[in-house]
Write a structure and sequence with these properties.
Elements (H helix, E strand, L loop, with lengths): L2 E6 L2 E6 L12 H14 L6 E3 L2 H8 L6 E8 L5 E8 L5 E2 L10 E2 L3 E3 L13 H4 L4
Antiparallel strand pairs: 1-2, 3-8, 4-5, 5-6, 5-7
């Protein structure tokens, strides 16, 4: 895969140049936990996570030409940051229209954590007590 250097938020990062179904990787428990904790520490008043159901995600992925998801940061009418999911094609374009008469799926309505963190999630408890991994 071709790699490129890009500037994001004033920092230079390396990423794949192309859009394929293989973009993304398993970063592992430790790396993921560090990233989530860093965000939680830097933004303690923001939602920690969001849950989106399988049906809407599969609906997006099953649209013609869709090879992956793009996640936008949105802000709802109450000022709460929530993710917006749209499909993306092999050129990295957002799939917003299926044809001239039908619009594609633009998914919102995620459950935000807190308060919807799961049955055993207590953000102030230890990992053993809560089941949290960060």
């Amino acid at each position: 895969m071709d790699k490129e250097l890009v500037v994001v938020s004033g920092k230079v990062i390396e990423q794949q140049r192309s859009y394929t179904t293989k973009v993304g990787k398993d970063i592992g428990y430790e790396s993921g936990a560090k990233m989530v904790k860093r965000h939680f520490d830097q933004h303690p008043d923001e939602a920690t996570a969001a849950f989106m159901g399988r049906e809407i995600i599969e609906g997006i992925l099953s649209q013609p030409g869709c090879i992956g998801l793009r996640v936008f940061n949105g802000v709802d009418e109450l000022g709460i940051r929530k993710p917006i999911f749209v499909g993306a094609d092999k050129n990295g374009n957002n799939i917003l229209h299926l044809d001239t008469t039908r619009k594609a799926i633009v998914a919102g309505g995620a459950k935000i954590c807190p308060p919807y963190c799961g049955v055993n999630e207590d953000l102030e408890a230890t990992e053993e007590e809560s089941g949290s991994w960060w």
